[in-house]
Amino acid sequence: MPDDRHGHATPSSLSRDTATSPAAGALILGIETSCDETAAAVVGRDASGRPVILSNVVLSQIAEHAAFGGVVPEIAARAHVEAVDGIVRAALIEAKLGFADLSAVAATVGPGLVGGLLVGAMTGKACAAACGLPFLGVNHLEGHALTPRLTDGLAYPYLLLLVSGGHSQIVLVRGLGDYERWGTTIDDALGEAFDKTAKLLQLPHPGGPNVETRAAAGDPKRFPLPRPLKGEARLDFSFSGLKTALRLAAEAAAPLSAQDVADLCASFQAAAAESLADRVRRALARFRETFPGLADPVLAVAGGVAANKAIRAALEAEAEGAGVRLVAPPLKLCTDNAAMIAYAGLERFEAGRTDALDTPVRSRWPLDETAQPLVGFGRRGAKA
Ligand code: KG4
Ligand code: ZN
What we know:
By secondary structure, the protein is an alpha/beta fold. It has helices at residues 62-65, 73-95, 114-131, 140-152, 190-200, 207-215, 240-253, 258-290, 309-322, 331-334, 339-350; strands spanning 14-16, 24-32, 37-45, 51-60, 104-110, 135-139, 158-163, 168-175, 178-184, 298-302, 325-327. The strands form two sheets. The chain has a six-stranded mixed sheet, sandwiched between helices. A five-stranded mixed sheet has the order 9-8-7-10-11, sandwiched between helices.
């Protein structure tokens, strides 16, 4: 184990994967600490220009937060401080590189929990200053947005659906640093709604996977839950009314048997998937209209909720109906990781967009800075 001095790393919480092809050109160390994963990775390009992940180390803090049913910012920041040096070292060892081999250091500087962001940003800046390397302050959401270029070599433009614990957004990715937000949630993020549903039904944190498992044995039609914003022209999302409707249904059916819980999970998941699919259908129609001549139109998904099979199936059906290819990066690169931060750093480095060492961290940092915040937007702001 690269860093088990503090008891944080366990075989199940520490995941790594290594590329086999050697890198040519720039080599970027990426550091991610915006929420509850301490992560470091090295990314470069092979001789043909394809991105290569030379190391990707992720230490999850799920165990530290489990007892609290959610991420506790102070616990997260302390755990990052204790782990980050070892995780950076592990990423370099796995990549078989030293600091002297690097071209630049990238770290997430927002959005996210400020304590965690400070730990990662200061670590990245310290490494850059000590080694005389350029620093790149990366937007975590840009990391998610560019992941399909890292994994599938997508060309700009493409449509991105980001569905995570902190965000539900439809974003047009036009180019590096050039994003147009087409839709966002007006209240809860979809992952947050899954997590709250799980908590209400007394399923363990994180809720999404547990709701999905229970839903497999349930009847999605038993509880008639609302499909928020279905049919509306705007491309935004809303999940808090669905969550309330689920709570009322659960209260009415109490005391809950295992079958009741399964039926509630299945009904919630079906409503969430249908609401999401409706928004995505409209977004895809707009995308096709905006870029009628695009040779390979793509809908890319990112964020932990994209792991949900019912949601994945609904998205596949919508993409197929619109004549668009669905690109879903492997799950370990859809959820929070540092390879995506190193890759966003690589694109920025190649474009000459390095940052000063006094770059501040930002708890809020929308991808599209021109988009107006909606009512309740960013209320939680803990996860991105
Ligand atoms: O992208 P992610 O790992 O972290 C950030 O939020 O940035 O996403 C985590 C979210 C959590 O809310 C989790 O419950 C949800 O993704 N999630 C799922 C599933 N797996 C993870 N939601 C529904 N179904 C799943 N299988
Ligand atoms: Zn994220």
